[in-house]
UniProtKB/TrEMBL annotation:
<dbReference type="Pfam" id="PF03217">
    <property type="entry name" value="SlpA"/>
</dbReference>
<dbReference type="InterPro" id="IPR024968">
    <property type="entry name" value="SlpA_C_lactobacillus"/>
</dbReference>
<dbReference type="Pfam" id="PF01510">
    <property type="entry name" value="Amidase_2"/>
</dbReference>
<dbReference type="InterPro" id="IPR036505">
    <property type="entry name" value="Amidase/PGRP_sf"/>
</dbReference>
<keyword id="KW-0378">Hydrolase</keyword>
<feature type="signal peptide">
    <location>
        <begin position="1"/>
        <end position="20"/>
    </location>
</feature>
<protein>
    <submittedName>
        <fullName>N-acetylmuramoyl-L-alanine amidase</fullName>
        <ecNumber>3.5.1.28</ecNumber>
    </submittedName>
</protein>
<keyword id="KW-0732">Signal</keyword>
<feature type="domain" description="N-acetylmuramoyl-L-alanine amidase">
    <location>
        <begin position="63"/>
        <end position="204"/>
    </location>
</feature>
<dbReference type="InterPro" id="IPR002502">
    <property type="entry name" value="Amidase_domain"/>
</dbReference>
<dbReference type="GO" id="GO:0008745">
    <property type="term" value="F:N-acetylmuramoyl-L-alanine amidase activity"/>
</dbReference>
Amino acid sequence: MHVRKTLVSLACAAALSVAALPLMTHTTPVVGLRHVHAAVSNRDINAQSFANPQITTYPTTFTKYFGYRNGVGRPEGIVIHETANSTSTIDNEVAYMQRAWPTTYAYVHAFVDHSRIINIHPTDYGVWGAGPAANARFIQLELVREHSDEDFAASINNYAYYVAYLLKQYGMGVDLADNDGAGTIWSHNAVSDWLGGTDHTDPIGYFKQWGYDMNQFAALVQQKYDALSDDGGGNNNGNGANPGQPIFDTVANQQSVDLLGVINGTATNGKYYLTDAGFTQAGTSASENGNAYRITQQATTTNGTSMYLMANASGTGQFWVISSIVSTEPRPAAAPAITRNQNVTGTLRLTSSAILHNQPGDGTFLKGLTAGTSWSVYKQATLSDESTWFNLGGNQWVAGNKGTFNQASTPPPATGGGSSVGEGEVTDFRAVAQINYVPNYGVVMWTGAGRVIPGRVLKHGTRWAVFKAKKINGQTYYNLGGDQWLQGKYVIIQ
Ligand SMILES: [Zn+2]
């Protein structure tokens, strides 16, 4: 536990994780390291000849972008944390922090375990991990707890590599601060000792469980740092995430936005992840064509390109695209009141991509509809903000300004038949037909053979049960029983 000098401290930044997670199970046999519950030294770690790990970057959910006290992209060192949670995995920790930071007020740049490094926020910007003094100065990394000598050794190898990698990237040297309050490598404990604003002691106690300490860790960072200097970046070529992928551009500035958008994806436009090195392409936007997302961030790149962070319904960022390929709508907190709601029939042809909403004007997004498609309309609503919305059946609504509405000249029947009747085919169709002609005049009936039935006129406004429908030469006829048919253009089906 992280009981510090005076009080029982809160656990480390990432340690407020759920307690109900299953215990990590250990099916991997311990090989190589023979001692159990004995000290793990740098010599043990090096004896494993671990490969340098890949650095994976997840889109950040931390929307409180702020530069360090010396500016964006100017950290002064790195804080070494451990999660203080013996039952969590790296996936648990990442998911929890990405979801819970608005209430826990804790966010770090990355998590490291025995097999992975997962970055969750650009290291050019500060995070909330160790009190105001450290947050304004340092990159902050969390180590996930391990349960075997070999996994602990691998996790420390990965941790030291990533610390060295970042120190190198930002032109910071290797200098442990724990002993004198100055330097580039700070345990959270050293922050508590020398800078204040926090009282955590990690990772001292956890390291001690493995016979390890900060001095050994700094020495291993120095070794990794020197190796990076020698070979120009080790396995990753100093390139951060997705080695081999070209970097599109870097962030000049970034801000929170709150929009909905449909991607008009093409094979030429990209889909990007934001890594420490910049926007890295991960496929084309064609795979996202027509898909709807929330948009939570807008960034302008160094070369002036505007980018959107596409997020899921709960606001978790998924990937970035160039903003010009996104059709956007505002995302209102609440839908304006409906001032008029009427049944209409017709077709809406979309002139731009649109979002299908649960209710007219609300912030939901069921799916995206692409420009140029046409949809049957059943209702039309007018909202208190004077916007018009069309209902496409069920709880599916589209903003009227996304397309052109053509009202049907003859209302189609309420169920079946009518315009959906195939040419020449007779279908069962039960409804009430009201004669719609000219007041005080009437319409004639026809036989199935196309002859007028003499002596019968059905007056305007009268209502008749119909039983069948058919279409001849594009015109719909309704059957009144027996061999008596009405021309559909003179009736309103009710
Ligand atoms: Zn900590």
